[in-house]
Amino acid sequence: SPRCPSPLRALPARQQPSSPPATHSHESAPACARAKRLRARETARARKLTAKGRHLAQGGSSALMCALRALVLRAAAVGAAATRTSTVAIKNERASDVYCHLPTTLLPPTIHVGEAIVVAGVEVPATIRCGEDEAVVDGGGYAVVTVADDALRVDDANAFQLELNRAAHVCEAADPEGASFGPTAFVDCVYGEAFGGGVRRDDAPNAWPDLWRDTDYWRLCEPSAPSPALRSFEAAAAPGVFVDVLRETPFVALARGFVSGDECDDVARTTPAVRNLARARVGGGAGSTSFSDARETLSTNLFVDWDDAERPLTLVAARTVELASELIGETIPYEAQEPVNFLHYRSGYEYKPHSDGGGRKVGARFATTLVYCDAADAGGATVFPVPPTLKFSPKRGDLLFFEYKNGRGRVPR
User: pTM value?
Assistant: First the structure.
């Protein structure tokens, strides 16, 4: 992956694979060591043979060169591992042409009105200057710089991804049946449409797979229709609410209008933790957590007070557990649940395909319930990309329930 540092560069210099035997003492660390041993012997002989003093001086110089060479190699390895690059799109939204400058990057003389250019391999952080304005581009991967009338706006990879999405919809509309475009031709069309045609495939060859995985996944997330229900029934745990079953095994079902807008507002109003959102983390080994580009969302945990039956969060959580118990066919104890994880997705945010359940075994998460207190005007679907694929496009107040497969085979979403 181009985002991963080379394992070779990541090793300290002394752990680098040794090169073939060098003919000069300053070309490898092992050769330096041998040279030093030889010079030590020469030094002992030089005390007896002063005529060899010239060779002793030459040996000392060579040993010093060895040490300097090792330091240079080590510094070069550290520098190479620390270098980050980004593919940067620059859009001109001003009423006149503009000239932009990026250090160590050759840009066209001007960017015309309404046009954009894409440049790859920009070492970041870097300061971009367009006319009298400047801004800092930071973070590896992808970025979009918008040259507006009064300032420069720098957006991250989400803006790049959304532009590819817009272009893909244009290409899809031109060939909705897929009769003209094969997979390669479709991606070529996307590159030709993105940023007003300012991106060439050679400039960002990995942008589509990096940001959209592949064309089938994009179609599942975006233009495809939501999955139809296999059967429906009224929930005993929530009278008046109907459950649509999307898949029997592992079980996936939805309930439209499970909570009201007022209930969601009451939870947010009476739960202070909702106002303390932070970047979500993913779990690692031995209970550790870390940030990940695969999970873009703001998050906080809401701890349910099961002793306060009238609290808005408790009321919603209890009704959710009751419905989940009905769907799996066994009683779930309230106190055995994880905290309610409150999530907020900004425009362009996503949680890439993953599996975070362990099947039906003691201590493992075997099902998840999502309640949507708000929904996006476009996008925002939850999909299951492993065939047979499923897609759920939520509305405000909807609920989605899904089980995980038993054993080692887990179902990503």
Answer: 0.72
